[in-house]
Design goal:
By secondary structure, the protein is mostly beta strands. It is built from one helix and six strands. It has a four-stranded antiparallel beta sheet, covered by helices on one side. The chain is elongated and about 45 Å long.
């Protein structure tokens, strides 16, 4: 299980959320015998909470339903630093790599 973060080119460091840094997250384990990368589109509010997560977007290598749900739950658990000057909804991406047995 590993995570990586990215956004559109020129959008700032990590996640695609200019000026935002991850402060915490939980890990949700897949319950099937699948592995692969799942890319999740996230929306973050200005308090740093992920308010929406859509797994299986462009870049996903395995869209098995048993990977999509733990990827969505993991992405929803992310918290970022608060930024009162940030838009009400900032869009970014989380790439979650699942390996067999995790």
């Amino acid at each position: 299980y590993a995570t990586a973060y990215y956004g559109n080119a020129g959008s700032g460091a990590g996640y695609g959320l200019k000026g935002r840094n991850k402060t915490s997250n939980q890990k949700f384990i897949q319950d099937c015998n699948e592995e692969g990368l799942v890319v999740v589109k996230i929306e973050v509010d200005n308090t740093g909470k992920v308010i929406n997560a859509v797994p299986g977007v462009k870049g996903t290598e395995n869209s098995a339903s048993c990977l999509l749900e733990p990827a969505r739950k993991t992405a929803l658990s992310y918290r970022f630093n608060a930024d009162p000057k940030a838009p009400a909804r900032q869009i970014g991406f989380v790439a979650i790599k699942f390996t067999l047995g995790q």
